[in-house]
Amino acid sequence: MIHPIMSLPLSSRHRVSQIMFHPTQPYLAVQSHDRSVEIFRIRTEEEVRKKQARRKKRSKEKKKKTQEAEDQVSDADGEDEIKLVDLFTPYLVVRASAKIRSFEFGVDDKGLKVGTQVIETIIYSVHQLI
Amino acid sequence: MSHSLRGHRDQITGIRFISSSDAQPSTSTGPNSLLLLTSAKDTFLKLWDLSTQHCIQTVVAHRSEIWTLDIDPEQRLVFTGSAEGEMKAWRIDHGALEDGLKETETGEVIIHVKNFS
After folding, report:
1. Which of residues 2-41 of A touch B (CB under 8 A)?
2. Residues of B in Cβ contact (< 8 Å) with A88
3. Which H, E and C letters describe chain A, residue by residue?
């Protein structure tokens, strides 16, 4: 069975032409019918929880400073729900000089290849996509 | 030998295989089921059981044509992209697939997805 989770925001408002998961690295590429390919980095749940814990700790510390030391009911032991939008974090947007018709992840994890309407193949080296 | 899977009403824009390997080795003795997920310009996502060639689920995924579909390498998530610039994420429930869907009289389960955030 397929169940809906949610809609994810994109940097472009154009038609979504191609969505592709990187086969081995935690990245998702989304090509829009304009001049861009947006890349999301896929975080691990552990990474998201750590960030949530840090954020909670920081806000608790801020509260201590600004308020009287009231008895704050501590957070429920249950962790915050991890949303898909937390796991898929915008990483970068590749913009080309013309409309992008197709793209592919490079072999041996070297970069992202993009084919534009001007019949050029441009190789974008995506930093750390190695 | 080729088969036709009929159901979509417009051009098919994405096809992915889903293998539902048995999560509970003690219960099933049958082979791993092979499924097919398709997206089309008719706005539907369809899930097909290749052993019976039946469509076992249809989802009205977007308000406009679905242009693209991909599944994550671990086969837990589906992402679809539409003509209106929408991108949606879906969960693959292998457990339900294992138990065997109870087909309706028409032979398929239809989910109409309205707005969800």
Report:
1. 2-8, 10, 12-21, 23-24, 28, 30, 32
2. 89
3. CEEEEEEECCCCCCCEEEEEECCCCCEEEEEECCCEEEEEEECCHHHHHHHHHHHHHHHHHHHHHHCCCCCCCCCCCCCCCCCHHHHEEEEEEEECCCCEEEEEECHHHCCEEEEECCCCEEEECCCCCC
**Confidence band, pLDDT 50/70/90 cuts, at residue A82:** confident
- For B95, the 3-state DSSP assignment is helix
Residues of B in contact with A5 (CB under 8 A): 77, 88-91
Q: Predicted confidence band at A34 (pLDDT cuts at 50, 70, 90)? A: confident
pTM summary value: 0.78
CA distance readout (Å), B107 to B19, B34, B53: 21, 18, 11
Tokens matching residue A9: 């925001």
More confident residue, B48 or A80: B48
Distance CA A108, CA B41 (A): 34
Residue of A nearest to B109 (CA): A1
Is this prediction's ipTM beyond 0.85?
A: no
